[in-house]
Model the fold of this input.
Amino acid sequence: MYKNLNLILIGLVAMLTPSFMPFESLSATNPVDLRAHTGLKHPTFVKIQEKEAAELKSPDGNVIFSIQNNLSDLSYSVTYKNKALVAKSSLSLDFLESGYFGKNIDMASPQINEIDEVYDLIVGKNKRVRNHCMEMIVPLTEQTSFHRHINLIIRVFNDGIAFRYEFPKQEQWKSYCMSDENSNFNLTGNPTVLTLFRSGFTTSHEGLYTRLAYNEIKEDTLMDLPALFDFHGIYMAITEAALSDYAGMYLNKHNGVICSKLSPLPDQNIVRVKADLPHKTPWRVMLISDRLGDLFESNILTSLNEPCKIKDISFIKPGKTTFPWWNGTVVSDTTIVLGNNFETNKYYIDFCSKNGLEYHSVVEQGGHEWYVNNGANYQPGTEFDVTCPVDGLDMQKVCDYAKSQGVGIRVWTHWSALYPKLEEAFTLYQKWGIQGLMVDFMDRDDQQMVNIQTEILQRAAAHHLHIQFHGAYKPTGLQRTFPNEFTREGTLNYEVNKWAKLITPDHDLNVIFTRLLAGATDYHLGGFRAVPDDKFVVKYIKPVMMGTRCHMLAMYVVLESYLGMVCDFPEAYENQPGFDYIKRIPTVWDETKVIGAEISKYITFARRKDSDWYIGTVTNNESRDVMVSLDFLSAGNYLAEIYTDSPECKSNPNLLVKEIRSLTSKDNLNLHLASGGGEVIYLHKK
Done:
């Protein structure tokens, strides 16, 4: 249970400097009890005349968040293993109706709690998660005529820090319009930055990443989240968690300091958030470690979200899906008349049934949606109806046949065509037997769009539908609350191979070290026709790939997504080496580990489902040798299927070598990865 920390008042001690001076730790009054909130470990509050300061340490003592308040400034700083990462950084809020909140603030005695609980994720990179952190609730009261009261909540984990504002219900302040949040990150030194620069707030969050020194970042340029900062051996990623009824956050370097920038509400550029009290902001998150793998293994984002709100979860069945739009809805059966019809969909349903793929996606054929729409380029026109299939498509017949074959049906929709008929459409989809859908072209993360996406998830859950968001902002851990959110796009990915030569193995690695840190990453996986770089030609039908076949296989392990795409046409997989790995691989995991990593160069993931392990390594356009230690395995003998790049893959990148070996936890594997290559391993106990 929560226990208040008594205020420690310091008398007039002339020798004390204005800076914060930490106190010696005290033992907890109660032992840690999993699934419970237990007692305080550190007294942290100091009041010295007009200055107030407090600090909060992680359970292992390595991460420290310090806060200081005086009449003119509320600020914080962050250290990791005694190294300053974030120097004095101001915190304030701007409101249209009542002005600036950040000066003349009284900081009352903080309440400190230790949180130590275990919870299960329905979809995720780990099934069982321990949420262990120290929490500090800092009451802030304005000493002005407005007399507003806001709580600053800080949580410090062994692998990072999160803070948010909570606006409790109060008599003189009923609602607010926020123009700026002003959460600053005054980074020390000159870290190397990997980030996605944006030109504005209206964005699909797709682009090429840039790696540069912090002092080379152009002032007043938006950076998308997550962004990764390398303090020359200590790593920090900045992102957000529990984005709900609020605007999405970006970063912006201004006067040498990283500051938050919120997406404005539509059709203006002043108001960011409108809310009635009580209300709260998302968590501002800093993932921190001197081991890169810890940032990927961290569960901070889901731990900062509320538990599952869906009562009946029986319909939530992650898996793999076709997405025929990517390959051009190619069929090898010449007797089929192509189109949005039963026969074309039957062809793909039979492919799914034969190969154990859980879903087939009904998208479009010949550049036209499956539903009535007189618009162009998938945009709703003057007449559109997501409840009315085009002529020749009997959706009930398609769903009934798929069900008879043990395959689920999914559909694609433009969000602005779906949203006006949300309840009507979902009711009909459930009646037909549709099990999920892709909602596309969101392209915003203002408060209105954030709320629309939340509403879509809520209504979809009521009708037993899962959701795949495209043209959408990064995940914020909400899949803990709404596990029917299977994946999100928000990346420039292999769909682009249909119209440009941009998605190289180098780009894949940059995406992994940024966007993947936030969670599920939809990436149009499964292209099985790789060509050497100098042979790549843009093709809208039957597009080809850069990188090796093993690189593609490994992306299924490395990327987190609870709805893995199998995008190529059925004939492209027939009798092809490596397809057995795709058919077998799960999309949700019991345990995830990162064995080795170097920013933008390579990474090795090991993921466990039940007692089986799947290992995948991807490299950039440089060839390299990697050592894969198996010391994470439990005792016993394992049979390993090892897929590596063929020595001839330079001329034919689809070639791979498959080897069967007996291995134990004492073994190390030395593997060679070709340029743009990879390796995958499937381990199961004998």
Observations:
- Residues 1-43 have pLDDT under 50 and may be disordered.
- Residues 493-512+528-556+583-686 form a domain with the TIM Barrel fold (CATH 3.20.20.70).
- The longest helix spans residues 447-462.
